[in-house]
Amino acid sequence: MKFAAVQPFRTQAADCGIRSCGLVGISRSAGVAADYGDCPCSRCGHVLRRQCASPMNDLPRHPVPRAAASRWLTVNVVAQLAFGLLAMTICLPSMQDWPATFGASQAAVQLSFSGYIAAYGLLQLVYGPLSDRHGRKPVLLVGLALGVAGSLLAAFAPNLTMLTVARMIQGAGTAAGMVIGRALVQDLFQGPDRTRMMAFVGMTMGLCPPAATLLGGQLHVRLGWQANFLVMAALGTVLWIAAWRGLPDRAPAAPSTGRAAWRALLSGYGRLAREPAFLLFVLLMAVTTATFYTFLGGAPLVLGRYGVTPESLGLYIMCIPLSYIVGNWCTTRLVRRWPDRTIMLLGQVATLTGLGLLLALAVAGINTPLSLALPLLLLGIGHGLLVPPTLAGTVGLIPALAGSAAAVAGVTQQLVGAFGGYAVGLVPHEGAANMALLMLMWTGIGLAAQVVLFRFFLRRT
Prior knowledge:
Keywords: Cell inner membrane, Cell membrane, Membrane, Transmembrane, Transmembrane helix, Transport. This protein is mainly alpha-helical.
């Protein structure tokens, strides 16, 4: 499927609700940008759908053919997204024994985890634009093959250095599933279906860390730490076959080589950087992630002060992931009746209410494990309402650059989230008050970004 370049055109315009509607589409045959002009869009991810004064046949279509939202397709896309998070967390129980196994320090063992995260985050910046130009499926298949290779290398690593290198290769490969999975949601689902799909993704992401940790612990005890990586290699192979057989093909752009390829890559990111609405969506996603990472970093410290032992810690830590699943389930029901901005506002209200209760209880001197866990149930529900429409907006704002948009969102989440976790160590934690204040700070930044987004750039959604 090839698309002819078009000339700028004007229409009898209806206001699409977006302050600057001069979207840029990618001409797939010539590899140049074509200005859409003032064609009114219906704010379904900036996909131009209304009839314009100029013939619609003259417009570049969406670069990926849309497919029916079958259950199999949904499961396939969600599984591709979850693979990286499963590979990241399944070996966490084994890391406690690696210092003794390899005769190394705990800091050296932690480097294997940090190396995975670094590769996982940074490679998303490469996979995104590559998938925009060469197609989702080919790039995803390469990434999955790399992930399987890294898993096998890790399973047979003779020392910690080789294991760290293998984990970085594994992270570099599994990053493809995260960024291309999000782009596929934009490609294959429209309007409310896209937000519902992001909610299913959110529910899966909430289940992955506790499920992978539980599975990894059992495999470690019964079969040894190598079994975790062999299971990931087998799962990656199954996902490779599922992607090859079950995901739709697309006609890629005319590939560029050498400097032209790098110019095309950078021009896509430059186009996104010039879209204020996209930057606000990314900021909102990033600070929401930072709020969660602040909880992950601070909750063990606070609960330790409350007398919670390591054996019981997970029961309280799971309060946000489980309630996050509930929030995503609610989003799948509400999205059919309410617009995205209303669901996002409801999410912010629930989040702020939960954090306000947490801070009030801490200031009142009520320092018990339940005084931390119960208010944060509201935060998990709030994030479950907030994240799916925010993700849908991030990848749907400029459909032709969905892969690049997903990449920018993914790496920004990782970097800002990591800083949120680091900031926890900068303040004392005798109780939950300081952690609550940090989480309120991140949430306040997100709320401000959301207000600016819908007040000045997306006036009607």
